[in-house]
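Build the 3D complex.
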Amino acid sequence: MPPIITMEECSLCGKCSDICPEDVFLMTDAGPQVVRPDECWYCGACVMDCPTSSIKIKIPLAMKVSALRVEGK
Amino acid sequence: MISWIKNREGTMNLKFEVIPVETDVLVIGGGLAGCMAAIKARESGVNVTIAEKSNTLRSGCAGVGIDHIWAYIPPVHSKIGWTIEDLMEDHAEVMAHNFIFKDLLYLVASSSYDRILDLERFGLNFRYEDSNIPGKFRIVNQFHSMPSSFNFDGRDIKVKLTEEAKKRRVNIMNRTMVTDLLFGDGHISGALGVGTQTGDLYFFKAKTVVLSTGRANRLTRNLTGVDFNLPLPPHLTGDGKAMALRAGLEIINMEFIESRYLGQGVNQPSGGAPRGTYQPAGSVVDANGKVITPRTSFYDWGNLGKKKVDPIEARREFAEKRARGHFMFRLFDMHNGGEGPFYLDLTNGTEEEIKHIEWSMSNEGKCWLLLSHFREEGIDLRRDKIEYMGASVRDMRGPSAAGILVNGDLETKIKGLFAAGDEVGGFPWSCAPGALTMGWYAGDRAAQYALKQNSFLPVGGDSLDSLMESCSKMLTIREGDHWKEVELAVQNIMDFYCGDVTSGPLLRRGIDRLDEIKKDIKLKAANGHELWRCLELKSIITNIDTAMTASLERKESRKYPVLFNRVDFPEQDDKNYYAFLAIKCENGKFKCSKIFIQR
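Done.
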């Protein structure tokens, strides 16, 4: 479930937990934790504003876009 | 922070931190409207506080950006021979079926260009070297018969507005939800709030208040089943409308809940579609490539200044296209009739057009994530067609215009209480231009009002005690309902009894069911965050209640763009219902009245 933090790259600045509009993160001494992933609204603000690009959003299967793919064009 | 203290009997009681705040102007909600109100009010030297549930940097409908704002654009439209009155006629007749207050429409239409120039001064880019339009703007067809929507680099609009507010020393209180308005003798005197992480209580004394909490979302469930995957933010729960109702004010248009048809999985509908925000647009096709809705035709900018438009003929053509229905509504009907699947087809677009759409998506709300998802999945708009889904969610979106009844000065019937943006009822598709212009105007009116008040009005009553008791109950109850359980229960009622098509018997039963369930609800919160969600639930329940009550009162049906369907009253009844329905609460009971529309 979204978002996913790569802790090795995280600078522990707390920006993600500061700006998340739905309060999905909790900032702890060990860094930001994703404590309420089911309250993510998939805006991606945390990804946009992370200074070390260490957050990504995993799109759940139920939300995947369906496309009619044309191979080889 | 919330703490526990031992009382004389030796049992533990909750102790809330109560934080007093005094401010000349209190702005409730720090979205586009709230930020603009605060920035403008500071020009008059009054002190200003924004109470924001999230963080103004990324909160509200424009939190992660907008790529378009409609406006009357004097340097462009005057050359076409299209006047501000023409834009207003287009908007009122075609977009709103005259369910709009003309004085508010004039306010927005006449000042949206000025607000765009303000945004430009705040550092947002509206001009492009590759543009052949005067001013080097990018202007596309969307809401009106003539192109009137600016495309711009709006991804960081909230970051810029927050910077401007801070520069002007606006006191921004993030993570603070206002729950109650305080007033006496018909004058506003302050408000109460709760820290959305800490559970602290805030006691605001204010000379004047601007309500700008935005739309009422989370009234129904959504198609993907991923609860918070909504087109617009879940933290917009119509708190202002619920508070206004509790304060005895009239709110209008609560019956106009509408489906967002055929969104895509990430739930940002219509990327690149005809008359969508990201243009040059594609077409909508079926599985065999048959065109259901052709791509938007474009104004020939090369002709600008050479040939004047006939605005009446342009409006007639625009109205004709709209009367056939927006493509999303048409597709929904066709899908329900067993047709489909349908696809967004951009494969005939030029490289320049595709690049424009991708740039546009990267600035428009959640579309940037959709675009990044396309890339991760190897989906290319140049080659692949994107499938539309069924109705994604039902909410109070653009055309609903549900909100508080205000006068032409954006003031409510409580003196000194103003509203702006989507908080205001009676302005379909007010959206970003409505928020920017009304915010600015309400901020100015509020500041002038505050300057005339020499002192704070006395704040009495037992509202703070009631709030403390209610919060304490939610935090201490042994067995209770998690807010998500309650949300699901009330959304089920809304979906089952007050759907796209409804009837008197269903609505009456729905209202009874909600009354029954309200008696059963025992909200339980484990911490400050859950307390916030519980308080939001109170707004959601009030908004569902008024939506069902107003739907029962409107005994007719209306087609697009208003869209309201009662099977027991299938005809449009202009004689009795060409009117806004106003709803207010008197002695605990709802009372409806009509405000007839002047033709």
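Chain B has 16 helices and 24 strands.
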